Description:
The structure is a single chain. This protein is an all-alpha fold. The protein has 4 helices and no strands. The chain has helices at about 5-25, 30-35, 40-55, 60-70. The protein starts with a helix and ends with a helix.
Amino acid sequence: MENKFLNCFCLTLTIIGAINWGLIGFFNFNLVALIFGSMSWISRIIYALVGLSGLYLLSFYGTLCSNENNAS
């Protein structure tokens, strides 16, 4: 069963996490730590949600592979 809200929410969080990691890698600038404080409880929740969203999005690989097989 597809949950469009959950898919969009997880994708948005993962994109935010990817942008934050890009900022850290290129400029040594942590946007989450700047906004919410370094390892404050809210920033830890954000990091945990981004991690869980990434794990959830791993399930999309199966969906993408099955769609490719059906298209062939």
